[in-house]
Amino acid sequence: MRGAKSAVWLAGAIAVALTATACGGSGSGSDDNAAVDPNGTYTYYNTEPQNPLIPANTNETGGGYIIKNLFRGLVDFDEKGKLRNMAAESVESTDNVHFTVKLKQGWTFHNGEPMTASSFVDAWNWGANVKNAQLNSSWFADIKGYDEVHPEKGDPKADTMSGLKVVNDNEFTIELAHPVSVFKERLFYDAFFPLPKAFYKDPKGFGEHPIGNGPYQQDGDWQHKVEFKTKRFDNYKGEDKPKNGGVVFKFYNKDDAAYNDLVSDKLDIMFQVPTAVMSQYKNDLGERAVDQMYGGNTNIAFPLYQEEWAKPEKAKVRQGLSMAIDRETIAKTALKGSKDAADGWTPKVVEGYQPNSCGEFCKFNPTKAKELIKEGGGVPGNKLTVTYNADGGHKEWVDAICNDIRQNTGVECVGDPKPTFQQVRADITDKKMTSAFRMAWVQDFPNISNFISEQYRTGAGANDMSFSNKDLDDLMKKADEAKSIEDSNKLYHEVETKLAEQMPSIPLFFDHTKAGYSKKVKNVKFDTFRQAIWTEVEVKK
Amino acid sequence: MGRFVARRLLQMIPVFIGTTLLIFLMVYSLPGDPIKALFGSKAADPATVERLRHEYGLDKPLLQQYWNYLTGLLQGDFGKSFTGRPVADLMKDAFPVTIRLALLAFGIEVVVGVALGLLTGLKRGKLIDQIVLILTLIVVSIPVFVIGFLTQFTLGMKWKMITPTVQDSMDIGQLAVPATVLAALSLAYVTRLTRTTIGENLRADYMRTAIAKGLPKRRVVGVHLLRNSLIPVVTFLGTDLGVLMGGAIVTEGIFNVQGVGNTLFRAIQTSEGPTVVGIVSVLVIVYLVSSLVVDLLYAVLDPRIRYA
């Protein structure tokens, strides 16, 4: 582990030295007029899926990227993060409790089976059932009758959720237990994908040979740890028909190895280049390097469950610390433009974002910073540590912000790296933190509610700070019950601006997709999920 | 001889149980909850966690878990990984690759290493000896990942002689470069070890006798000198085979070879008990068998050693 880490660093150094002396920055040879092979396939960087390929059980990117190509849900988000209907003709509701779903006609699964209302309803009932222990089952929790099929203890009392009713082959209704203004948005997620009847005969075999309704179908067997091949599904009825012959998901253990393949055109698309090559990948790839914002952010959070940090006046200290950090300069220099300075808790590319939600508290102002920290009675123990996982390339920014805090406020600040992500997560969920820690969020879907509600609502799943504020909870409840998504967004934005008064976490950066592609492909675009628009990729002849 | 082998085989049983128990305990004392980790940074749903814990037998006391594992193992069941795949399948994918890689590397270090050692041992102090000594010194002092990355960069990315990573892990031709990298360090040791013992044995009495008897030089060097000089080398090679099988994590990572090292590394990261214990158990057996073979080889190499 140690060896491997320093290896990355050293290889980076060697590579830099060699390129500097030999090539001196290679120009890109991308030729956008090259003829396109409509049946050409391309390779996509991926990691071996951690779970069988069942939508309700796939919650990590390795399996997720494959599932997202084999299946299409009722709705999805386009390149700009706008919601659109996919398999659904319409999803309508007047009160955000009762939904009527009408399906598009003529869609089939890869095995020829027609896609009907039951394909969705049965799949959701199966996924929610506690007996099947699916990792994504909590996504169904808003549906009426979820607690019957998924009780907190013991066996389910029912096999189906009472909130789901099939009207006919092309129509079904959903009743929720309580109003959710973003329920239609949530329907994009993998857990809500339909399943063919063939699935229930052999769920285990299905995990190896998934059958979906999406633009690509599996081609041959899943070669574990090596690759997963897909080919275009010619009977696909969606509007996003593939412009290529298929995607081959190639599995790597180390992203450095994948990057070397990318530079040598042995790998076609890599959605995230390794941290070690951040400063050089634009030189290596020229025009084929991609650098754009996506729906993810980096914050530092505070353990509000600790007596010292829970005191109300410590909000001032957190505001002060925030104002001591010169985000713009750090983003430009220490991070070489790989992140953008944050001005709030919601990234720029996400629906509902409004500039300067955090207001003056996220603007660099060392004089005010010192005053506020003093007013708040100083940092507990007069020392701040920032805990992060050492296996994720976070050292640069943690050191940079600590440097700013030390210089501008005189508060002692050090980074506290823990070896693995898993270890840090365990300490955080067990509420063992004593000082600040890294808290990052990658969108489930590009809407402000996902960034605010999941982290700052009392008792929310990702509320690592144990932050709790009754007024904000009420506002969020109101937002969820709002009649339209616009109203809901407005209310969530109000919550966001009010977060600055308490500062449970300090917004730092909006994260970037740093991707690259080979000379063999063109028209490679990325959405706010940091995913390539797979169907749009064109393979050169 | 037969009794010796039988005794050694019996000794393997407690060693095997001891090591698997230790590893079992170590994996379970790793920080973090593997089932909760399946949920990523999302909150784990308690009811689902409970189901999964039960499914993988993690809700039982540790010793009972070990007992269940051991009895399963005796029936040829290695358990299943958290991905739902049987560990036996995982190993079926990984071991053929690693065995190819390890044997290729082993072959390279035996043939080249012993040949170079013999050459330098016979020509001590000559120019060729000096050159080989310096080269081996360089190899020994450079960590393997540096050699790996340098080879990948020069051969793969600058001169484009090979693909930077192995595209097909079962293709011996493509494994040649990673195997050479993997073999480099041990090759240097084998060369130096052989050179030293050859040098010592050249002055031995039986050598003088053999030469005095007027035996042809080929026979003196090939049978009398080399055979006797190989004993320490064989000891080293025996343990090295085990190292090659399990310790290729770095090389496998650089060249994206889908072998045992990577599977093991991933399993440790995700605290996947059954996979770690399964792989390590097989590696323990490899070590035990190869050290037995080494001991038996002593008798073949040196007629003075006999096992009653």
Automatic annotation (TrEMBL), chain A:
Every Solute-binding protein family domain range: 85-460
Molecular-function GO terms, alphabetical: peptide transmembrane transporter activity
Gene Ontology CC annotations of this record: ATP-binding cassette (ABC) transporter complex; periplasmic space
Record carries keyword Transit peptide: no
Signal sequence region: 1-22
PROSITE patterns tied to this protein: PROKAR_LIPOPROTEIN (PS51257)
Stored InterPro entries: Peptide/Ni-bd, SBP_5, SBP_5_dom
Gene Ontology BP terms: peptide transport
UniProt keyword terms in alphabetical order: Signal
Protein name as annotated: Peptide ABC transporter substrate-binding protein
Native species: Streptomyces mashuensis
Taxonomic classification: Bacteria, Bacillati, Actinomycetota, Actinomycetes, Kitasatosporales
UniProtKB/TrEMBL annotation, chain B:
Gene Ontology cellular-component annotations: plasma membrane
InterPro entries: BPD_transp_1_N, MetI-like, MetI-like_sf
Keyword Cell membrane attributed: yes
Family as reported in the entry's similarity comment: Belongs to the binding-protein-dependent transport system permease family.
Keyword terms: Cell membrane, Membrane, Transmembrane, Transmembrane helix, Transport
Gene Ontology biological-process entries: transmembrane transport
Topological relation to the membrane, as annotated: Multi-pass membrane protein
Top-level division of the source organism's lineage: Bacteria
Localization annotation: Cell membrane
Protein name according to UniProt: ABC transporter permease
Keyword presence, Ligase: no
Transmembrane segments: 12-30, 99-119, 131-152, 172-190, 233-255, 275-301
PANTHER family membership: DIPEPTIDE TRANSPORT SYSTEM PERMEASE PROTEIN DPPB-RELATED, DIPEPTIDE-TRANSPORT INTEGRAL MEMBRANE PROTEIN ABC TRANSPORTER DPPB-RELATED
Residues covered by the ABC transmembrane type-1 domain: 95-298
CDD domains for this protein: TM_PBP2
